[in-house]
Amino acid sequence: MELRKLRISNFLGIGEGELAFDKSCLVLVEGVNHDSPSSLSNGAGKSSIFEALYWVLFGRTKRGLVGDDVINNVAGKNCVVELEFDRFKVVRSRGHDVLGTSLRLFQLGANGESPRDLTLGTVKDTQKLIEDTIKLSDFSFSKIAYFGQGDIRGFAGLSDNELKRVFEQALGLAFFADYQDRVKAHRMDLEIRLRDMTARHESVGHERVFAAEKLELMRHSLEECEQRTREDRARLESGLREIERELAEIESNVRQAESELLSRKRLVEAQGIEKGRLDVSRRRLDELIKASSEALIRRQMQNVALAAEVRSIEFELKELENRVGMPCSECGKPYRHEDITSVEVNLKVRLKDRREACSAGAAEEKSIRRRFERLSRYAAKLESKIYSFSAVASEMLNVKARNDHWRRVLAERAPVLAEKERETRAALERLSLEGTSGKYPLLEQVEFQGSCVKELSAESIRLERQIDAGNREIATAKSLEEILGNGGLKSYVFDAITPRLNRLIDRNIKKLDDIDIEVSTVTKLKSGDFREKFAINVNNRHGAGTFEGNSGGELQKINLAISLAVNSLVRSVSEGSINAMFLDECFENLDEGSSERVLDLVQDLEVPNIFLITHRPAVKELVSTVVRVEKRGGMAYIV
Q: Are 54 and 138 in contact (CB under 8 A)?
């Protein structure tokens, strides 16, 4: 994942700003809070740049802010962040006048081609598409690229289960659990199907016994044939009458639907010309509404810029007035009103001019808004007229659907009824030939029942074989579940990466302090047996023998050594990679020498763009490239 450009508007403390990822070096993010000079750089909006990147990708900030909490309080709306990376662009907005609250993903075109919109139907689906595209979850992103304030975790203080969960997520081992869940679901489905097959096997056995008994009874029922023959004749004759009645009813419905459809077609044709004229008017009106909306947005942005300039001039006037009586920095004489009169006059002229421009801009905005509302009302009236025509057309479609339905019914039922009539007349003819004895139809039924008994026997044998195969497949699924569990492949992966992780941790801590750190995946019980357990053992040769016994600075070094080692390991095995790293105040508990060595460790990760926020002067002196954030009037700007 190659980050290219980040654009921010009205997000947290940032009013407007753009950040390009083309530095290919270590970059210091500095801030100046003009709203509160006593705070120096605190509250200037430095961390908001990193939070904006996190929010546009994952829909929440690193601190967990969601919803309208991310909108700048001064602006109150129009929060939008855009991120270009690789050949894609993500745009996430909140409370925007045009974009609303939305998430969109675009594929940027090559050679000047227009971007292709990849946005899916829901925000949830689009969010999943973004994470699939960058091959990073929010957890993986925070471990690979973004260390926020307080994010250097105390790994050595975590429990066995917490450490397992951290490494499973960081190394992308969650698919083992997902696959295990699918195997388990498949096994449970097999067990349900096996129970169904067993129940079916028992049911087939009962049916076979019943069929055999029924076959025996049929052989003793030949004397009842004469009575059944008379009943069959009456039933067949009644069926013929029912067939004729149903066919006549269907034909009547077809004729009625055709007549109604013809009437509706004439009405729709008569209204077609008027609807075409209204459609042309509506398209023209839509163009005017769109142009009016764009003009309104441009005017609003211009008014905001004018208001900001008025506040700036007022601030300069106030500062100029405060100089009266103050000594001059060059000659030492106090300033008089006469010394600042010319500058004050110029500022007041500029202030008057900008205020008049603000008033004119507000009037123009109001005029544009009234025109936009008037066009919208007229569009609603046109839409109502067009809808009335559409209702007539919709009714015609309903009538056409009824006509098509009855035609389909006629096409489907006519051959069926004709065949049924033929079979019924053939049955009546057989009854006439066989007379009153009814012997031959009964014999046919006896033969049919005999074939049913044979089919049920074959079905019983087939089910027995399927039950055996199902039992074997269930046993295989259970074995696969064990392989995918904690004692299977995941345990093998943990054992495989532990030596490499220990080497990385040892390399890092040796550059920072004389402390031994070791990650282990097994522990020895009092009984002498070994059990799988994640643990991080810390031994300070010149201090405490446990993690908790070390000082604050030593704990920071231990946590940094482990965190950067995990970062290196995750970068080497993860599908997602990124050309940037963001460090927000990760050196604050360290002395100058330790801070410099930590900075060397970070640079050893060979990340092209490393953005750093720190208040440590020793660290700042090592950085040559600076991005500056200035805050005025509740709005921070990247300069």
A: yes
**Amino acid letter, residue 12:** L
Tokens 């009106």 found at:
285
The Cα 432–Cα 436 span in angstroms is: 8
Residues in CB range of 434: below 8 A, 6 or more apart = 229, 440, 441
Sign of CA dihedral 587, 150, 39, 51: positive
In sequence order, which residues have a C-beta less than 8 Å from that of residue 273 and are 6 or more positions away? none
> Which of 63, 52, 45, 66 lies closest to 6, judged by CA?
52
Give the 3-state secondary structure of 59-70.
Answer: CCCCCCCCHHHH
**Of residues 310, 297, 305, 304, the one with CA closest to residue 348:** 310
Residue 628 to residue 639: CA distance in whole angstroms: 5
Cα–Cα dist 604/599, whole Å = 9
List the strands of the sheet with 116-117, edge to edge: 116-117, 100-107, 88-96, 79-85, 3-11, 14-20, 635-638, 625-632, 26-33, 609-613, 580-584, 146-147
Residue 25 contacts residue 627 (beta carbons within 8 Å): no
- Is the distance from CB of 335 to CB of 324 less than 8 angstroms? yes
Give the containing element (helix H, strand E) for 169: helix 160-170
SS3 category, 31: strand
- Triad 59, 64, 69: Cα angle to 5°: 75
Write the pLDDT tens digit of every residue in 361-393: 888 888 888 888 887 888 778 777 766 666 666
Quick count: other Cβ atoms within 10 Å of Cβ 547?
A: 21
Query: Hey, what are 407's tokens?
Result: 């035609």
Alpha carbon distance 490, 164 (integer Å): 10
CA–CA separation, 559 and 588 (whole Å): 13
Q: Quote the pLDDT of residue 458.
A: 87
C-beta separation of 34 from 630 below 8 A: yes
**Confidence (pLDDT) at 304:** 87
Mean of pLDDT values over 116-133 = 90
- Name the band, by pLDDT with cuts 50, 70 and 90, for residue 38: low
- Using an 8 Å Cβ cutoff, are 311 and 633 in contact? yes
Measured CA to CA, the distance from residue 547 to residue 517 in angstroms comes to 9
Inform me whether the pLDDT recorded for 122 exceeds 50.
yes
Residue 436 is predicted with a pLDDT of 47
pLDDT of 293 over the 70 cut = yes
**Cβ within 8 Å of residue 290, ≥6 positions away:** none
pLDDT band at 124 (very low <50, low <70, confident <90, very high): very high
Q: Distance between alpha carbon 340 and the CA centroid of its chain, in Å?
A: 60
DSSP state of 222: G
Q: By the 8 A CB rule, do 27 and 609 touch? A: yes
Task: List pLDDT tens digits, range 413-433.
Answer: 788 888 887 888 787 777 676
Structure tokens at 590: 């360290």
Alpha helices (H) in 173-330, listed in sequence order: 174-218, 225-322
- Flag whether pLDDT at 89 surpasses 90: yes
Tokens 């076959």 -> residue: 215
H or E element at residue 50: helix 46-58
User: Tens digits of per-residue pLDDT, 552-564?
Assistant: 677 777 777 777 7
Residue 40 reports pLDDT greater than 90: no
Question: Which helix (H) or strand (E) segment is 14 a member of?
Answer: strand 14-20
Q: How far apart are CA 598 and CA 586, in angstroms?
A: 9
